[in-house]
Amino acid sequence: MLSLLVPLYYVLSESRRLWYRLGWRRPVRLPAYVVSVGNLTVGGTGKTSVAGYLASFYARAGRRVAVVSHGYRGDRGGLVVSDGRGILARVERSGDDALLLARQLPGIPVLSGRRREELARRAVREFGAEVVILDDAFHYFRLARDLDILVFNTLAGLGNGRLLPAGPLREPLRNIRRADLLWFNQADLVPESELKRFQSSLAVWAPAARRVTSSAVFTCFSRLDGSDLPVSELSGMRVWVLAGIGAPDGFLQRLERLGLNQAGRSLYPDHHAYRKEELLALPWNDFDCLVTTAKDLVRLPPGPWPRPVVYPKLELKVKGFPDADNSGH
């Protein structure tokens, strides 16, 4: 039944792209270096982690950086989530991805909303941004960009390879040709031969695009009060895993690699809005510690909770990204 809707989705999505390709509409161009981070499939590629990595990268290179997020389920009108000095919005208004970036990027303004071109202008005007990172913008044509990055979850791949709503693809594979750089995340979770086959199958559509690989490393776990918990201290505990993220298999595999004694799991859809009563209904007496993700953490209602709640701190190990000399100077 869903297959019957694929042609309608295709016509609607491609017609919008056609307007810009034929020049009927023109994108806004900013006096700043604009980097778009997006995906071809729905959810779970790690594009927000990549956006955070890039923001830190350009900031270390001495550039004034701002991040503009889509703000899923947030305020459609747009708002400043962080001015670089403090967080100014709650998750209900910002969306979870934007609030996560604001928490992880002190000193870097984060804005959230649907009209990314207006928010990007505001970032340049109010914060003097020289580099603007767009989180989830491969399909957004109102704002011109200088670097278009497509992020792929190497572990999940392309699913059944079909367009929405019958599959996970937001656009046809041939639209990969718009990308300047193909970013393969979770690269350490598949065999090298499988990674190379996946890269080669996509490079057919964009042979000139650069390739980058990345892997997430759990450096330690953090408690709700901000204190760190070494991985070794979790080894003797029974843990319950809580996750409401897209494509959680990578997160679950990394926990399994640590050898944690998992008493059970509660998995929810991406961006799930947790209610306190559903969390209190967990079998808290059956485990010693609740393990969740940093993204889930921004959606948790305030405690206290019967057991400690921790989440892993991630470090993105990246291979193949250009040096600071190529960062838009």
From TrEMBL:
Catalytic reactions on record: a lipid A disaccharide + ATP = a lipid IVA + ADP + H(+)
Keywords recorded for this protein, A-Z: ATP-binding, Kinase, Lipid A biosynthesis, Lipid biosynthesis, Lipid metabolism, Nucleotide-binding, Transferase
Pfam family, one: LpxK
Pathway in which this enzyme or protein is active: Glycolipid biosynthesis; lipid IV(A) biosynthesis; lipid IV(A) from (3R)-3-hydroxytetradecanoyl-[acyl-carrier-protein] and UDP-N-acetyl-alpha-D-glucosamine: step 6/6
Assigned EC number: 2.7.1.130
Top EC category: transferase
Record keyword Lipid metabolism present: yes
Alphabetized GO MF terms: ATP binding; lipid-A 4'-kinase activity
Matching InterPro entries: LpxK (IPR003758), P-loop_NTPase (IPR027417)
Keyword Transmembrane helix: no
Residues the record lists as binding ATP: T41, V42, G43, G44, T45, G46, K47, T48
GO biological process assignments: lipid A biosynthetic process; lipopolysaccharide core region biosynthetic process
Listed GO CC annotations: plasma membrane
Similarity-based family: Belongs to the LpxK family.
Protein role: Transfers the gamma-phosphate of ATP to the 4'-position of a tetraacyldisaccharide 1-phosphate intermediate (termed DS-1-P) to form tetraacyldisaccharide 1,4'-bis-phosphate (lipid IVA).
Alphabetical list of NCBIfam families matching this protein: lpxK
Descriptive protein name: Tetraacyldisaccharide 4'-kinase
Species per Swiss-Prot/TrEMBL record: candidate division TA06 bacterium ADurb.Bin417
The gene coding this protein: lpxK
